[in-house]
Amino acid sequence: MRRPAPDDRPVALTIAGSDSGGGAGIQADLKTMEAHGVFGTSAITAATAQNTTGVYGSHVLPVEEIEGQIDAVVEDFDVGGIKTGMLATAPVIELVAEKVAASDAPAAVDPVMVATSGDRLLDPDAEDAYEDLIAESAVVTPNADEAEVLTGEELETTADARAAGETLVKLGADAALVKGGHLDAEGEARDAVVDVLVTDDGAERFEHPRIDTDATHGSGCTLSSAIAARLARGEPLRDAVAGGVRFMERAVRYHYDVGEGPGAVNHGAVRTELAERAGTVEAVEAVLDRIADADARMLAGDGGLQLVGATPYAERPAEVAAVEGGVGATRTGLRANRGVRFGVAPRAAEVVLGAREVDPAVQFGATIRATDAVDAVESLGWRSVVYGPPAARATGENQLRDAVEDVIAGVDETPRVLVGEREHSVAVLATEHDRLAERLLALADAIESGD
């Protein structure tokens, strides 16, 4: 008989409606909590018939049934965080406000009123009932339309969002996160989304690029449940919000292409990224082994060679594997200075990440600093583009990534090679590690032939 190895983890409770389509509601909340390493429990307020195209029916459960679910959870589990979603009617909202007030767990209140499809999920006469629940919340997370209903204030800009957040904090919320997906940010491009977090200490903006997709159904549920899960883990509110925004952004960008509608939010993107890391390291090592076995030392040139591999959902250099210290040439062949690790080659990683902004299928790359490599690319006749500093975005943390994104966005097809005009470097791109190895070996032959 084997000894058990129990997993002791925080517990969170979601009180929300069920989405038969799986993209929002209870289903989204539990997936998100699981992705955060939190044990998710639930109290279902309503059963909805919906999918990626809309809501086709809704049945609100009796209040006593909802209360029974909540009581069953809190009597057995040490709940560390609460998330509320679709509450549908005034009696349900009033019940949940009482239960949240009786709990020591911080609550993230998502005042769900209308689905992304435009279908209404809250009785109009229940809107005023939210005031007591807001007063008990650690953070309330309305979108612009919901904030207008709750505050009676018109929202058009991020300044309006801050004013609405201040009103919600005055109603008793510890904090208000007003989501700005449909707002204008004064003096900023419309391709930026700015969410505004307001507390008694002031306001903070969380800005991220707008994702060109309509697959946002469930994004609000995902964000609020991510915050609740992080609060259950003991994170400070500001960190929970920042982490929740990042989680939600990735879940939308890498959404599932399912159903006849826009698709479904990918609540497992972060966990999949982590799960793919070991395989990505092995892939980079396989490329290194192939070019080393072929004695392709000419690829190292005078400035060395760097091999990188991004996980399928990589967004940051810390999620890109590379040979630490790069690959150099010796009299006996190629030699890796150290092993393959994540986050050790930020510049080479930024090149691949910039390409992924346009073509997310790109996962692997190699950067070669050698004039001979530039000449060899021309002799091979490969699709290539020259990149330099970003013309329109010359400041910020991701200048190199922006430069690569800009130049690839300007051509019809993702090139095999990028040529750095200032660094006399060549960056070879590929969607698969085997293809990268083949291209590098072909390039090595061309360099040698040029000699």
Would you kindly provide a written description of the structure presented here, covering whatever features stand out?
With 451 residues, the protein is an alpha/beta fold. The protein folds into 2 domains: 11-273, UDP-N-acetylmuramoyl-L-alanine:D-glutamate ligase (3-Layer(aba) Sandwich), CATH 3.40.1190.20; 276-450, 3-Layer(aba) Sandwich (L-fuculose-1-phosphate Aldolase), CATH 3.40.225.10. Helices cover 38% and strands 22% of the residues. The protein is built from 14 helices and 18 strands. It has helices spanning 25-35, 63-76, 90-101, 130-135, 144-151, 158-170, 219-232, 237-253, 269-275, 277-293, 346-358, 371-380, 399-409, 433-450; strands at residues 11-19, 39-51, 54-60, 79-84, 107-109, 139-140, 175-178, 192-199, 202-209, 305-310, 320-323, 327-330, 333-336, 340-342, 364-369, 384-387, 417-420, 425-430. The strands form 4 sheets. The protein has a 7-stranded mixed beta sheet, sandwiched between helices. A 6-stranded mixed beta sheet has the order 3-2-1-4-5-6, sandwiched between helices. α5 (144-151) crosses α6. The longest helix has 18 residues, at 433-450. It is elongated, with a radius of gyration of 26 Å. The model has no long low-confidence stretch (mean pLDDT 90). Residues 284-421 form the Thiamine-phosphate synthase ThiN domain. This is Bifunctional hydroxymethylpyrimidine kinase/phosphomethylpyrimidine kinase. GO terms for molecular function: ATP binding; hydroxymethylpyrimidine kinase activity; phosphomethylpyrimidine kinase activity. Residues 19-266 form the Pyridoxamine kinase/Phosphomethylpyrimidine kinase domain. One of its GO terms (biological process) is thiamine biosynthetic process.
